[in-house]
Amino acid sequence: MIRTAKLVYDYIKRDEEGNVEEVDRAVDHVDLDVEKGDFVAILGHNGSGKSTLAKHINAILVPSEGTVWIGDMDTRDEGHLWDIRQSAGMVFQNPDNQIIGTIVEEDVGFGPENMGVPTKEIWERVDESLKAVGMTAYRHHSPNKLSGGQKQRVAIAGVVAMHPKCIILDEPTAMLDPNGRKEVIRTIRALNQVEDVTVLLITHYMEEVVYADKVVVMDEGKIVMRGTPREIFSRVDELKQYRLDVPQVTLLAHELKKEGIPLPDGILSIDELVNALCQS
Amino acid sequence: MIRDITIGQYYPVDSPIHRLDPRTKLIGTLTFIISLFLFKSIAGYLVATAFLVTVIRLSKVPFKFMVRGLKAILLILIIAMLFNVLLIRDGNVLFDKWFIRITDQGLYTAAFMAVRLTYLVIGSSVMTLTTTPNDLTDGLESVLGPLKKIHIPVHEIAMMMSIALRFIPILLEETDKIMKAQIARGADFENGNLIQKAKNMVPLLVPLFISAFRRADDLAMAMEARCYHGGEGRTKMKPLHYGKNDAGAFVFLLIYLAAILAAKQFWIIV
Question: According to its UniProt record, which protein family does this protein belong to (chain B) (predicted)?
Answer without folding.
Answer: Belongs to the energy-coupling factor EcfT family.
